Each structure stands twice: as C-alpha cells, then as structure tokens.
Amino acid sequence: PAFHHAPGAIDLMNRGLHVLVEKPMALTHADGVRMVAAARQHGVVLTVGLFRRLLPAIRLFRAALDAGQIGDVLNVTAEVGSAYTWQLTTIAGMRRQEAGGGMLMDMGSHVLDLLLYICDASPSLVEYADNASEGIETDCTIELGLSRRGAFVPAHVELSRTRTLDNSIRVEGT
User: Fold this and answer.
1) How far apart are CA 164 and CA 79, in angstroms?
2) Geometric angle at alpha carbon 118, from 114 and 121, rounded to 5°
3) 159 has pLDDT over 90
4) What is the pTM of this model?
5) What span, in angstroms and rounded, lies between the C-alpha atoms of 7 and 144?
6) What is the pLDDT of residue 92?
7) Are strands 73-81 and 151-160 parallel, antiparallel or unpaired?
8) Distance of CA 161 to CAs 3, 23, 79, 105, 134, Å?
9) Is the pLDDT of residue 124 over 80?
10) Which of 150, 157, 158, 78 lies closest to 121, judged by CA?
11) What is the per-residue pLDDT across 2-41, written as a single tens digit (0 to 9) for each?
12) How far apart are CA 61 and CA 65, in angstroms?
C-alpha cells in the first residue's frame, strides 16, 4: 500500500540501494522531500514507476508535436475512466490516509505525466473538482493551463472510476 512507499524507500536508500517506487511516491510533500534527500545523501537513484511515456505510441506522439506536425497546440483534452472492477486484496486503497487519494492518485498521475511529457509543458492549475467528500474521489475534473513554448494552452482532464470515458488524449492544433 502507498503508505509504505516513503518509509520503505528511505530505509532501502539508507542501505545504499537504488529505488524504483510505485506511485504515489509519497503521501505527503514532507515525505517526498525526505525521500529525495535520502537519495542525494547516499548517492543512489530514486525514481517513480511512471513508465507510460516510454511506450512507442507516446514517443511518436511527442515527436509529432515537437516536429510541428499539427501546428501550434490550441487545446488538450484527456479522458480516462471505466468502472472499477478489480478484486481488492486490501481496503488500503479506499482510505485517504493509506492511499493518498482515489482516481486522481491512481490514474491521474499517469495522465498528468503524459500530458506534460507529450506537450513538453509546465502546468498551472485553473480549477479542480471531485466527488471525494470525506473519502477518496472516484470522479474528478481538472482544468489546467499548459505553458508551452511561451503560449498558454488550455487543458481539460476528466477521470472516472464509475463511468466509461474515451480513454484518450486529444491535442488540437492549427
């Protein structure tokens, strides 16, 4: 479970071992800072398992944007979601204090990483909404501004564990 990531990674790095940690890397900013400090102190590699940017289709997508094949990027939309049907082995993923969050932490981290990689952009949060209430979110929307080559590009992200969405990233260009 996610609440073990930071303490386990720090323990391994204190032993001089390189660490590949699953996402979320840490549940708090402070834990993330401690993890990075341990990696630096011991001269080891700390990395998070965000592997999707290495997929051939994603690398081709990035190369096409970098080559200007769609012109200037005008708008980005990402929709990822379907009904959650995996059998649970623990309820840790359903508790904020142990998982850190729901759909945003689970799939959102991959989607946001891909958007920033594909568009070679820096994000700014415009608006966020979810249905978490006192628990974890199963649905959320994120409005971002992507700073790409000096231009502001609006981006809309929708994530759901309750509805089937397009499961796509669309980039509109000139």
Assistant:
1) 9
2) 95
3) yes
4) 0.81
5) 32
6) 65
7) parallel
8) 21, 18, 11, 12, 17
9) yes
10) 150
11) 889 999 999 999 999 999 999 889 988 999 999 999 999 9
12) 6
Q: Is residue 83 a contact partner of residue 164, using CB atoms and an 8 Å limit?
A: yes
HSE-up of residue 90 (Cα within 13 Å, Cβ side): 8
Please say if the pLDDT value at position 114 is more than 80: yes
Torsion angle of alpha carbons 88, 90, 138, 96, nearest 10°? Answer: 180
Tokens at residue 69, please?
């094949």
